[in-house]
Design goal:
The protein is α/β, with parallel strands linked by helices. Strands 3-2-1-4-5-7-6 form a 7-stranded mixed sheet. Helix 1 packs across helix 3 and helix 1 crosses helix 7. The longest helix has 15 residues. It starts with 5 loop residues before the first helix and ends in a 5-residue tail after the last strand.
Length: 246
Amino acid sequence: MNSMTRDKALQYARYRLPYSIEASKFVIETANVSQGIIADIGSGTGLLTQHFVGEVEKVFAIEPEFEMRKISYELMNQREGIEYIDGVAEDTSLPDQSIDLIVAANAYHRFNPEAAIKEFARILKPQGWLAIFSYYDDHNFFRDTMLVCNIAQYNERLAATRHQEPVTYFYGDSAPHRFLFKQEYYETWDEYWGAVVSGMEAPGESEDWFEIFQEAHKQRFNNIASNGQITVRYSTEVWLGQPKYG
């Protein structure tokens, strides 16, 4: 797959489901980092980052995709307390023991677990925290979205970009706590499709399986829509703890 285009990054920013603001506030309070230094690793277009900027002393937004970083900068409207870094989970370029809290959203699925853990151990302060955010599929909506079009190319891309380790693996020898923050969101076809096609694994319009992929999703949307929109019920899932690395 090629680097993220601006169009796809814009779709990502516009159409991806939001993370719970309450979840971010809970993490800040629990980890006691309102005066702390945060690293958002795999920050993308700032879907999670935006909930921490202005609520803590500083956020380092670590993101390898140029267009993602650029759009995040534009959407943040030059807010203070954030610094963008061209980096990855395995090589953030941050100083040793400089971070009070690492946060990561769904990008954690794409990390190299062993290399990321080594980097987390290097940059976290003693007694530092790790919070991993993701979408919890209360009603199998995300599962069905991924299964709706059983195309070999799509399945191969999904398998190639996701590791198989459980989220708890990133906490080493400690046991993180899990929290759920329920949400409900309404989507039109354009919003549903925009979220689907913004994924890195989704085909581009020039690929020969694009139309089959799109038609399968149109049929799925129409089957579950009422008055032109669907209701997505999900939760922001947060794993929170203080990692212990050997």
